[in-house]
């Protein structure tokens, strides 16, 4: 954890799943990080792999915590054409559908320990967002609406049934905006250390009109500077030592920071668009997040929400989960002693939390699941 981030004892109300409901207990965590997930965090610390990943077969035979792991396939699993772009996704199991959405720079394979377990009871989809993983590195203007539209169309064209959306980090916020667009089909949402921020009263005041001086002189110079800086950061973020260091800073239990995970990030395909995609991601999406705030999206939803939160996350602390619950009462919280990616760090606990919560939702009964035409 950065020395600039204060660590203080922090009492947190934890809602733990029981047989039929979530009961509240209070735990005192050893520290809480006060820092949020900033644009700079994404640029310098995010799990960056703007190209598809190739993993040697020798890395595929082991598993952690005794859990079954999704078999790796160099060529991916399934592909779907969306608006002329190639989108990769994994589909396993039978039953009520669950759609898993990865975080920034990751892919469907980041759900390696969750897919096999959840697929024992449910039909599980894990989709690669446009620009990430095995999906196409399209040269488009990336913002929250691109992935919202992708996931919404995935639900319409591939899933075709009421479903639960599950997202980590950037995937969490994508799940929210997609659910808002597909209210009739999304019957529940699960967020794991989600990205996104609450709106500020000063946001509208700060949206000043762009002057000719800013448009024709300042903006071009800023873009040149950004390309130089982000080009270096993109190169740096792919170095194995850097990736391992970042992963170990956000996985508090680092046993799952293995060669499989590191090499899946550091060995992107030779895609000529990878660097440009990264530049567009950082300058477009990360700079306009405030246009799509958590409060503006949550205020339009009514379905049940589960927060599975790694309280030891140095980027997005438990205070954010508590604020979401305060704003959106139809929320259950499961607090875990884990970092930013609890689904991969403590998958056995996340899997249990998901299955227990899903069992409380009448809509997940496979016998009553209608198909959406």
TrEMBL record:
Q: Name one GO cellular component term.
A: thylakoid
Segments forming domain AB hydrolase-1: 98-352
Q: Which Gene3D superfamilies does the UniProt record give?
A: alpha/beta hydrolase
Select a single GO molecular function from the record's annotations and give it: hydrolase activity
InterPro entries in UniProt: AB_hydrolase_1, AB_hydrolase_fold
PANTHER family named in the record = ALPHA/BETA-HYDROLASES SUPERFAMILY PROTEIN (PTHR46438), ALPHA_BETA-HYDROLASES SUPERFAMILY PROTEIN (PTHR46438:SF2)
Specify the protein name. AB hydrolase-1 domain-containing protein
